[in-house]
Amino acid sequence: MPKRSLVLLSRSVFTGLDDHPMDGFVAIHGNRIKAVGPAADSGPFVESADEVRDMGTRTIMAGLVDVHTFFTGWVLRRTGADLSAASTPADAADALLAWTVAHEGAPVALGRNLPECLLGADLDRALDQVFTAMPAVAFTEGAGTCALNAAAGERYGFTPDACYAEMIWRLMADYLPLDEVREAYGDYMRMLNSRGVTAIKEMCFDDYYGFADEMARREVAGDLTVRVDMMSQPVGRAADLAYARTARDRFQGPFVRFSGFNRMTDRGLWRGLAEMIEPYEEGADAGAAGKTVVEEPEWDLIARELAEVDAEGFRYSLHCQGDGAVRKTVALYRDLPRDERGRLARRHSITDLENSDPADLEAFGSIGGICEVYPQILTLDAREDCLSTMRRQIGESRLEHSWNRRGMVDAGCIVCCGTDLPLLTPHLGDSIYSACGGYFADGLPVNQGNTLTLAELLRAWTLGGAYDLEREDELGTLEPGKLADVCVLDADAFSVDPRDARSLGVALTVSNGRIVYES
């Protein structure tokens, strides 16, 4: 079958190579970009194209790359019996039972959207009565807490107070093989494509509990529309280098690859659980006052694991929220081998960096460090709900070092964008509002001197992400010869005030030369 050709025209083509868009065109032939240039040069490509789309003033750019996603968490909120209509513990137990009957062979009775008002001893007893031997778990909306019977507590080892992703890894081994979970991957890709996302870095706990087989099957079948760079997050055991070697050899195709490991260090600053350079202030939450860290990260384990991972040629991503955790991570990275330019030989990264000292950003930039930031994060909160807590815990001067994307770029760090999906769902408009405007959900600003320009943010979502995936030669900019992963916004991003950017959406997404989403 001959390769099809598509030409996209717009008065706002952002190639990623310049800070401003041009009135131009992008010509695609098969799965590659054939030509990019000013509108005056588009004639021959338009005349020979199988299809031409005039996008008017809508911005055309490279496909977005989300560098921190969790399918395991996204699908958990969509799997199992829908308990939202349950009004009594018996209703919830009966709905779970009906689901297990319809899903014969499922090793667990799984529910979602449980009304929080049903949590408690009555529901626990009902689950124990209906499910004497089978584990039963019912998550509330958002999976922030849950109800579970005695069999589930014994099998999975987590509690309603600690049922976040790193704690429920034993449950993942039971729900990831479900047919409805594997089928849901199509919905996952469609959702990402509808947000302009064409590539992700996926956090896959341990050995992904068999779900890597589904990724392999889909790649062979040719039905992947999102490129996936898998990283193992050790939770059930230490970094499994034997699995990593096998996965690296197995996944070397155009859509699925394996690159290394992801690990948490500290936790949320707003909860007083981030590791700081200086102690928390008096009045800090979680008993943190006078301390730099409440829950000491496993730095000895991390250091040993990092050395082994680096020596094997794999990447390591450390999730740091406090400036103290960032400082220790930068120090660990600085001891690793460098290339001829003085950059880290492996593309190790730091994720989140909620609070960071400018001196550490400078040190990280000097070795080619990668900062994986959450550009939409401010949209989760009203300003004072967030800042009043942080101000009380770390003081005003350190608060100024929060969400310092400006400092990262100026220090020479590679900045790329993640969402921690399902914490956030990719949304470029929200990113502009938050990371360029510095606005919280209520429209009030913070640290606007720490924000990015629009061009810097768009590059972080594209070229920065491609660099993080070690695919900048194939992805991330609109250039002849690169893979045809393209996002078309529904307006000219360069004419939108950041304060008004939340309405910005996606009109068209092209993955590997195919239109995979159209609004």
Account of the 3D structure:
This protein is of the alpha/beta class and 519 residues long. The chain has 3 domains: 5-63 and 478-518, Urease, subunit C, domain 1 (Roll); 80-175, Diaminopimelate Epimerase, Chain A, domain 1, CATH 3.10.310; 265-452, Alpha-Beta Barrel (TIM Barrel), CATH 3.20.20.140. 32% of the residues lie in helices and 21% in strands. The protein is built from 17 helices and 20 strands. It has helices spanning 43-48, 71-76, 89-102, 121-130, 150-156, 169-175, 179-194, 211-221, 241-250, 299-311, 323-334, 358-366, 383-394, 396-399, 405-410, 428-436, 454-468, and strands at residues 5-13, 22-29, 32-38, 51-54, 60-62, 64-69, 81-82, 109-114, 136-140, 146-148, 197-205, 227-233, 256-264, 315-320, 349-352, 370-373, 414-417, 486-489, 506-511, 514-518. The strands form 4 sheets. It has an 8-stranded parallel sheet with strand order 6-11-12-13-14-15-16-17. The protein has a 4-stranded mixed sheet with strand order 3-2-1-4. Helix 3 (89-102) packs parallel to helix 4 and helix 11 runs parallel beside helix 12 (358-366).
Task: Give a brief rundown of this model.
This protein has 519 residues and is α/β, with parallel strands linked by helices. It is 32% helix and 21% strand. Strand 2 and strand 3 (32-38) form a beta hairpin.
Q: Label the overall shape.
A: globular
Query: Helix/strand-derived class?
Result: alpha/beta
Biggest β-sheet description: 8 strands, parallel
State the end-to-end distance: 28 Å
Can you tell me the CATH architecture of the largest domain? Alpha-Beta Barrel
Helix content: 25-40%
The top-level CATH class of the largest domain is Alpha Beta
CATH homology superfamily name of the largest domain: Metal-dependent hydrolases
- The total domain count is 3
Give the uncertain stretches in residue-range form. Answer: none
In the sheet with the most strands, the strands line up as 6-11-12-13-14-15-16-17
This entry's quaternary arrangement is: single chain
Number of strands: 20
CATH topological fold name of the largest domain: TIM Barrel
In DSSP terms (H or I, runs of 4 or more residues), the helix count works out at 17
Radius of gyration: 24 Å
